[in-house]
Design a protein that fits this description.
The first copy, chain A, is mainly α and 250 residues long. Chain A has helices at residues 12-25, 37-44, 48-61, 79-103, 107-124, 131-151, 155-164, 172-179, 185-204, 208-231, and strands at 34-35, 64-66, 72-74. The first copy, chain A, folds into two domains: 12-74, Orthogonal Bundle (Arc Repressor Mutant, subunit A), CATH 1.10.10; 79-244, Four Helix Bundle (Hemerythrin (Met), subunit A) (Up-down Bundle). Chain B binds a DNA duplex (30 and 30 nucleotides) through helix 3.
DNA sequence: TGTATGCGTTGTGTATACAATAGCGGAGGA
DNA sequence: TCCTCCGCTATTGTATACACAACGCATACA
């Protein structure tokens, strides 16, 4: 009897965590809404213990908030929370770039980053960029940022950046998607690519301050564009994290 | 029958979390050592479910590391991990100070910070500083940093700073204690107090860049002093987090 | 008619039983 | 003597049962 389909390839805890995260980011669970464990058990197929573990993890991740009287609710974010989160990640990435530059990086370690850069250049040559190419861009951009973070060789910093990127709107992919809502999207992507180029150059020449400054500017650009995108609310359905933005308040 | 003493005033999960953290920071559990759930159940008095919840939380906090094959082990930190963590927090606090300065803070909001500053000044007037006064200093310093963080008015940033301070050696109290191991401790504390004074002044005058710079310098001072303290390993028993430093490796 | 109290239901916090897996030790063969 | 394989044990992952607390609704009294 396959009444309860048990997938043994992945732990129930992880399965529940992924399922719940999907529900939150897809907007199936509204911000501020209390999450019922019982309901979560039904929708995820796991039992209460792994569901509870998943809820604790999602709380630490920042997607949920503990209710004092017990249980969890979906966290709601203001527009400022989102822009602050992006700037926060930019600051952290700036520190990572500085560490990479100051501590030195061999040409061999820089190679994957340069390949990534070249691949993005190739994509941006299309005018206007196709939907498929844009999707590839999102992936490549996330890869670029991940590689750059790694170059810092600082586990505590890498860990913190990962945490900061857990909130979808603060992840590299998140704000790229937000930018895509703007008419001048392609131009923005090209400016961003310039930043990528500069940070590699700065790291190669061991210019820590310059490497840091450009990554922070990179994030500030993203913040400005997110603000613009939120003004003219077109195509914002591309941004899944929008489900988390406070609607009534603020 | 009080065979199992159940304290209903605080949840079993929190109780277990605190007990386990104590065990880790006191060195009762060595870095790299696997934590047995069964053993944790015995030492904490809670049952397996809350113990597991506590373990997940401590992992997210950064004190534990998940073992791929299952279970958790006490995380081990290198000296560089520690100095990176301090610099990381300094960077975050720098951003908080910048936010406070740029967004504006009323005189009334700045008042508690100034009181804190004055109280520390009072303490440092003693030469040499007494043990009691030093203990008060640790508390006041933590309070100063917490108040400053709050002034940013940015929940995501505050949250991230809290996380960064979860590792005891990266908390304000942690590195103050490390500094105390140095003969020139008092002089260092006075320099730190100068930083505190400057950051308040910068926030008052809405000089974001200056506010940020001084907080980063504040952290860099702490890193330098921690390095010195670790060189001449005297009085380092004052630093409880030392239990987490890798011994053999690195 | 409004408010307060009590009872019922729902849901979380905790405990424990069961299942599955990984690691270790012993035994047998090369 | 060493290597390999099989089985056992210990420990984790999962499921579920139980207890208590909180919220809501209804009813009764002012």
């Amino acid at each position: 009897m396959a009444e309860r389909e048990v997938d043994r390839s992945v732990s129930q805890t992880v399965k529940a965590q992924l399922a719940l995260r999907d529900q939150i980011l897809s907007g199936a669970l509204r911000p501020g809404e209390r999450i019922s464990e019982l309901q979560a058990v039904e929708t995820t197929g796991a039992s209460r213990t792994p569901v509870r573990m998943a809820l604790v993890r999602l709380e630490e991740e920042g997607l949920l908030e503990a209710i004092p009287s017990g249980g969890f609710m979906v966290k709601a974010f203001s527009e400022r929370d989102i822009s602050d989160s992006i700037e926060l990640r930019g600051t952290l990435e700036g520190l990572a770039a500085r560490f990479a530059a100051e501590r030195g990086v061999s040409a061999r370690e820089l190679e994957p980053l340069k390949e990534c850069l070249a691949a993005i250049d190739e994509l941006l040559r299309q005018v206007p960029i196709s939907v498929d190419a844009f999707s590839s861009y999102v992936t490549l951009n996330a890869r670029f940022h991940a590689l750059l973070t790694e170059l810092s060789r600082s586990p505590p910093l890498i860990r913190q950046i990962d945490r900061a990127s857990a909130l979808p709107f603060a992840s590299p992919s998140g704000f790229v998607m937000a930018q895509s809502a703007l008419p001048e999207a392609q131009q923005i992507l090209i400016i961003g690519q310039d930043h990528h180029r500069v940070v590699i150059d700065a790291i190669e020449n061991r210019e820590g301050a310059r490497a840091e400054a450009v990554m922070r500017e990179h994030a500030r650009l993203a913040v400005r564009n997110l603000r613009l995108a939120l003004r003219n609310r077109t195509h914002l359905d591309l941004l899944p994290a929008l489900a988390l933005i406070k609607t009534a308040t603020d």
